[in-house]
Design a protein that fits this description.
- The protein is mainly α.
- It has one domain.
- The protein is about 80% helix and about 0% strand.
- It contains four helices and no strands.
- Helix 1 runs antiparallel to helix 2 and helix 1 runs antiparallel to helix 3.
- The chain starts with a helix and ends with a helix.
Length: about 120
């Protein structure tokens, strides 16, 4: 395989890996926001127990269970990302590899390993 193709596949692989990291951050966002919402619920209950009904009502009305984007909870954001951008990228990346280097992944990294490996 020529060097230009290896370099191009290396860039595509790096982009895919970066997308996987971004997807992980999106799951972090989903789990952290869900955890925060559970704590908000506990805070609302604690405010009520402490006799602060108006403040509990405010937090419950404006924050608890709120959409993070218009019409969407975090699980829907994750689903939209997975079903849209992530799936399209995965399919394109697989098609490119199947056409240019069937059955091989990380060609640039394998070549780097061969060059740099301690003997």
């Amino acid at each position: 395989m020529d060097d230009a193709t290896v370099a191009a596949l290396g860039l595509l692989s790096e982009a895919w890996e970066t997308t996987e990291r971004a997807r992980g951050r999106l799951y972090d966002f989903h789990q952290l926001t869900g955890g925060a919402d559970r704590l908000v619920g506990e805070a609302v209950e604690a405010l009520r127990r402490a006799g602060h009904t108006a403040q509990a009502d405010l937090v419950e009305r404006t924050v608890q269970g709120r959409d993070v984007l218009p019409g969407m909870w975090t699980f829907q954001v994750v689903e939209a990302y997975d079903e849209g951008y992530h799936r399209a990228f995965a399919e394109a990346e697989q098609q490119v590899r199947a056409a240019l280097c069937p059955g091989r992944d990380h060609i640039a990294e394998a070549e780097m390993r061969a060059r740099r490996r301690t003997r």
